[in-house]
Amino acid sequence: MEQNSTRRDFLLGMVFFGALTMLLYYTIVLTGFSLDDKFFLNASFANASGLKEGDAVLIAGRPTGKVREVSYHDGSPDAERIGVRMEFNEPVTLHQGYGLRISEFTVLGGRVVEIDPGPAEAAVIPLDTPLFGVVGTSAIAALGELVAENRDRVNIIIGNLETASTALAEGRGPLGALINSAEMRTQLEDFLDTAGGLAADIRQGKGIFGLLATDEEARSRLQETLRYLESSARDLEEISRMIASGEGLLGAAIHDQALQADAMATVSDLRTAAAELRTMLSEANQGRGLFGELLTNPTLAADAASFLANLNHVSERLVDGQGTVGKLLTEELAYDELIKALQLLTGSLEDVREAQPVSSFVGMLFGNGF
Question: Domain range spanning residue 161?
Answer without folding.
Answer: 150-180
